[in-house]
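[stage:ingest] chain + small molecule (Palmitoyl-CoA)
[stage:ingest] validated
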Amino acid sequence: MMRQPKHVSDSKTEQIQILMPEHINGAGRLFGGQLVEWIDVVAGVVARRHSGCNITTAAIDNLQFKAGAYANDTLVLIGRITHVGRTSMEVRVDTYVEDLGGFRRAVNRAYLVMVALDEKEQPTEVPGLILETEMERAEWASGERRHELRKQRRMEGY
Ligand SMILES: CCCCCCCCCCCCCCCC(=O)SCCNC(=O)CCNC(=O)[C@H](O)C(C)(C)COP(=O)(O)OP(=O)(O)OC[C@H]1O[C@@H](n2cnc3c(N)ncnc32)[C@H](O)[C@@H]1OP(=O)(O)O
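[stage:predict] done
[stage:export] tokens:
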């Protein structure tokens, strides 16, 4: 059954963390594994909101640590859906450190592929995506290329 398409804004998700001592690694910076866990949760919520289904992470396609974050920083994670296939959704998660003046410094960008699952845990069709802005259309076009590239890589056993 064809499902009603949704807007990018319908599933946009924001998570805030204040960095505590338990999030910091031996070098005094935010532990990357902790950040990946938060990123995965944000992407999971975006995918659940878009699909209305349980989801699983199929791939973390790209993960770039751009700058460090430190104890007591305010961390802002923003997840947006960028592309949908038949059963998969690509989610981009941007992470920033927000200073006391509200300025946000980018510390990480990640793209994840989430797959919607039916009650038998099998991949199931997801709603289409309504693109409204130039940025959303540009992300979709690059997402389309990445989707094809991933398929190609899987066929090659990469
Ligand atoms: C103090 C703190 C300490 C912290 C310490 C560190 C912690 C650091 C935490 C890190 C956190 C990490 C993130 C964990 C994330 C989970 O924990 S989620 C649980 C783990 N993930 C799983 O179990 C998924 C396992 N995989 C599967 O179940 C199946 O491969 C899948 C994903 C359901 C796909 O099933 P399939 O039979 O391949 O189905 P198929 O119809 O061929 O493909 C379905 C769709 O998936 C896409 N797809 C399939 N495989 C792939 C792939 N490899 N790539 C991209 N797309 C794919 C296909 O293109 C297709 O898309 P559409 O063309 O339909 O749009």
